[in-house]
Design a protein that fits this description.
Blueprint (H helix, E strand, L loop, with lengths): L1 H18 L4 H23 L9 H28 L2 H8 L2 H11 L10 H22 L4 E2 L4 H14 L12 H31 L3 H23 L12 H28 L1 H5 L2 H14 L4 E2 H53 L3 H4 L1
Antiparallel strand pairs: 1-2
Helix pairs in contact: 1-10, 1-12, 2-3, 2-9, 2-10, 3-8, 3-9, 4-8, 4-12, 4-13, 5-8, 6-8, 6-13
Protein name: WAT1-related protein
Pfam families: EamA (PF00892)
Membrane topology: Multi-pass membrane protein
Length: about 350
């Protein structure tokens, strides 16, 4: 639950900073740099002595994983957030567990047996997920008025005065830009899902989670710096003042990236990844409420698409849980069947043994 609150607040703060003129590419660089500075002393104090040796092959893997999970996914997500809304971003995040399962299926790490209810649930979840993405992209629907109308006007004014090159708010964007932003967020979720699948394989080779995360954050900082320098040539776009932009960078870097790592790791170790994924829809509800209070317009299509994505998520989780329950009960059922057969054989042997009267 705490992780979902952090995720929703990070999304809302980032969107507000972009509306005030902060470059999305510069923001990613500052965010990963803040996360690296936060994790570095922790890694030195907690993980330096127990750190296994690093080979060039492992470093190359971490570089590529950082390219997908940090640089590519965050830049795509932030550009999408600039072109759509916080509701779309949070709704699309519900597709991450489903996309992760689909990638694991392609890599033959997961299976679908359509003859079983668990397989049908997984297939239905993937279908609902795709339908939710299409609804968000192709159907905007009517606009739902924000709860705080006065703050809505302030945010719009701040967004226009902050940067003349800034895009219009999500409610005034053209259909083509909205669709492009939605599919950019889908690509960001795909890159993040791929990172999570590959991360599980990496941790089998290098089990020190803290150092693995720190190294990937450092690689991501360098990569995102190269991207930002190549795109943002104006030095004024790199300046941070004592305003909402600085707060968004510090919060998303330290809390959104650094603290969330420990929360996710703890939750997976204690309850498993399925329990963690079950709380993803909470970020959608919190984001809708928070963005409405801050004055952002929410569209009906985003809500309907989010409901389909949540339904797809729970269908896949139900199928996974059903499959794990079936796998767990299979040995006990076989054992009971074998015990019944052994008991039957024993009874048959006893019945065939002659009594003393028969022997006489």
């Amino acid at each position: 639950m705490v992780f979902q609150v952090i995720l929703a607040s990070t999304t809302i703060l980032s969107k507000a900073a972009f509306d005030r003129g902060l470059s999305t590419f510069v923001f990613v660089f500052y965010r990963l740099a803040a996360a690296s500075l936060f994790l570095l002393p922790l890694a030195i104090l907690l993980a330096r002595r127990s750190a296994p040796p690093l080979s060039f092959r492992l470093l190359a893997k971490m570089f590529l994983y950082a390219l997908a999970g940090n640089t590519l996914s965050l830049n795509l997500a932030n550009v999408s957030l600039k072109y759509t809304s916080t509701t779309v971003a949070s709704a699309m995040c519900n597709s991450i567990p489903v996309i992760t399962f689909f990638l694991a299926l392609l890599m033959r790490m997961e299976v679908i047996n359509l003859k079983r209810p668990s397989g049908k649930g997984k297939a239905a979840g993937i279908t609902f997920c795709l339908a939710g993405v299409l609804v968000i992209a192709l159907y905007a629907g009517s606009s739902l008025s924000p709860l705080n109308h006065s703050h809505h006007g302030v945010l719009l004014a701040a967004g226009h005065h902050g940067d003349s090159r800034q895009q219009a708010p999500a409610g005034h964007l053209s259909k083509g830009i909205w669709i492009m932003g939605t599919f950019l967020m889908l690509l960001a979720c795909l890159a993040w899902s791929l990172w999570m699948v590959l991360q599980g394989l990496l941790l089998k080779e290098y089990p020190n989670k803290l150092l693995a995360t720190l190294i990937q954050c450092l690689f991501g900082t360098v990569q995102s710096c190269v991207v930002a320098v190549a795109i943002e040539r104006d030095p004024s776009r790199w300046k941070l003042g004592l305003d909402l932009s600085l707060l968004a960078v510090a919060y998303s870097g330290i809390v959104g990236t650094g603290v969330c790592f420990y929360l996710q790791t703890w939750c997976v170790d204690m309850k498993g990844p399925v329990f963690l994924a079950m709380w993803y829809p909470m970020s959608l509800l919190l984001t809708v409420l928070g963005s409405s209070l801050l004055g952002e317009t929410t569209h009906l299509g985003s809500i309907l698409g989010g409901i389909l994505l949540v339904g797809g998520l729970y269908c896949v989780l139900w199928g996974k849980n059903k499959e794990e329950t079936h796998t767990t009960t299979m040995p006990s059922d076989d054992h009971q069947e074998q015990s019944s057969r052994e008991q039957g054989d024993a009874d048959a042997a006893i019945s065939c043994t002659p009594t003393e009267d028969e022997m006489i």
